[in-house]
Amino acid sequence: MGVGGGLWASAKSTVKTFLFFVAFCAILPVFAISYATVSTTRKLWIAFLANRYPYLKFARTNNIRSLVDTSRNPGVFHVLLQIEGSCDIHAIKAKFIDQVLSRRDQYGRLCFGRLKFPLISCWGQYAFVKKTKDFNIDNHIILAPTLHRGRPLTEANLQDYVSEFISKYMPPEIPPWQIFCIPMAPGGRDGSGVAAECDSVAPYYYLLYRVHHLLLEEQTRLKISDLLLVDVKQGAVETVGSLSECNSIFANMMRGPVYLPKMWRDLNASISNKWNEFVYNHDPLESPDIEKKQIKGIQQLLSMLLIGVVVIVSDFVRGYSKVSANPLIKIDYLKSLIDREIQRRNLTLGTIWNAILSSLDPINVVKEWIFLLWKIGATITLMVPWYIYREVEAMRIYMLIGKIKRNTVAGFLLEYVPVLYGALGECFTGIKLLYTAPRLVAEELFERRSDITEHYLQNVSLCGRKVVSWSEKIRMDELKLVEQGTGRKAGYSNHTPNETEILLAILSKSLQALCYEGDGKIPRMMHLSGRCMLEDYLLGTTNYRTGNSGFISLNLPIESLDQRTLLRSIRYSIAQIRQKQIILNFLTIAQLKHDFLTNALPVVVMKLLMNYLSRRFAVTMTEVIENPNVTERRNLLGHTIKDIIYFRPPQSNTSVSITVQRFNGEVRFACMADSQIGPKHLALTAGFRKHLQNLQDL
């Protein structure tokens, strides 16, 4: 029965995979037509609105965040900086005006003009109102009161104080960004004399940034570090180049191919070498051995024509983006390249006719045949034995010392047959991945699992206002000690729990505490969506597209389990991610960089899809990857940045956004949740150290 049941399950899975692939192939043409129709219609609609309302500058961004953005639940990013130094709001305003608001490009235009424009919605499209006369810096850089509900502001009530600012909407009549300067008492002590989280006895202050996402997406040159006034020249001498260099479950989903890039590099090098040799032998402009004023024969004529065509195409491709977008100007540019090559190579009608006559001359024809016969005879009698000797010698050297002589056929086969075999294996793996992708993506996004039920965070009636909290910091060295101790006590022979598994175990316990305080029901598992971002996206020069990874789906166990079982379940979930979500991650990266999905599907369909998915993934997680090459960050005022907390806003039906913040060798949890969940959201961060100690006591 077991064998029969296994065969039936395997056959069922095979048929299901085939049907999903056939459905995907059938939908693909419809998707392509929809992409052309929807994207073109949207561009025409925006062009019509821009002509109808010339005083508005309409947003061109068409990503998922702009789709789910509403005035009730706006996509406003929040960053909290802890800075060592005295809080001088006038110096901050002056520096911000000088470095950001007044910055101009090489043509004398303002670089970030939209920072002075209010944001409104017009006929379903966001637009900036092109007026600056009402702009007042005092409405944006604000000195916060030092009292909170009649009491001095301390670290003990800072989270509640910051949540009050975040829970309030920004005034709609001003540009959508604000900076709150929050001075703190020297030494970081509260009224009872208890030391605060800041270890420094020097004065320090906080800066709370509130920035609408469209300000960053519509101004691609505007970086978050510009708004934070980070001295990128001082701090980011060495930056993490890409997400592929980071150790995170949200990045590096698939091990990169090895043999295909090697074949591609070697093939390019071989073609380049052969082409350069061909150009040297047949192009009079490159070789001193060829007469430049006369073309001898049809063979040289055809060679020069081929070289000229390649030069024209390569120059046209390089200069295409630099020429005006007018098609007539581009045609004139192509014509100028053709005329240039004709003049350089003397390709006149007389030259071409002389080359043809030279090739048809009987004396030249006889010379060519004599040379060809001599070459064939010399090759057979002299070169063939030499080639055989070289091949035998190459095989003998390989069998004796294992060295490959590349300039022989045997050496070529010994080197590239294994590479070809590996490349074919990688191609087969890629084809299999594409074949199974429709089923895996559909199951991950839409399939209902019996072990995952609805939970408290999916049933909250959201209001759109946000509250925040954050945990205390833990040194990464302390986390490593817990990691090593857990591995020894748990008795793992082949696998010691790593940092990611330990942090996910802490997150599981935190979500369990939140659900218990919410409705008392603890789900067995919970769907989470997760991504990672580089610290250099916040404090360096990395932009949004290269500093953020794609999304993955994580099935996190929540039900009360002993610590060992919990860690094993988390490890299994991570393994499933690596096996089944490569294409899902790739698709979200493609959406992040090219907005292909929002440009292909109608707005109504996309909104219904996002409402469903955001309810399925009611909790989202962002891991901020620290840059280990930078030990200290400073702002343009010369003050040291002691800490940073990034809050990513949950939108649509997502109710909780959690950030795993790594900075300066420390890690903490930060949470942004809908205010309908507060104050229960504090359970997500309050037990951070307690849950870590419980893992250490395993």
Automatic annotation (TrEMBL):
Domain O-acyltransferase WSD1 C-terminal: 550-695
Coiled coil: none
InterPro entries documented for this protein: O-acyltransferase_WSD1-like, O-acyltransferase_WSD1_C
Transmembrane segments: 18-38, 301-320, 369-389
Protein origin, superkingdom: Eukaryota
Keywords: Membrane, Transmembrane, Transmembrane helix
Keyword Amino-acid biosynthesis (UniProt): no
Pfam families, per database record: WS_DGAT_C
PANTHER family: GH11223P (PTHR31650:SF23), O-ACYLTRANSFERASE (WSD1-LIKE) FAMILY PROTEIN (PTHR31650)
Protein name in UniProt: O-acyltransferase WSD1 C-terminal domain-containing protein
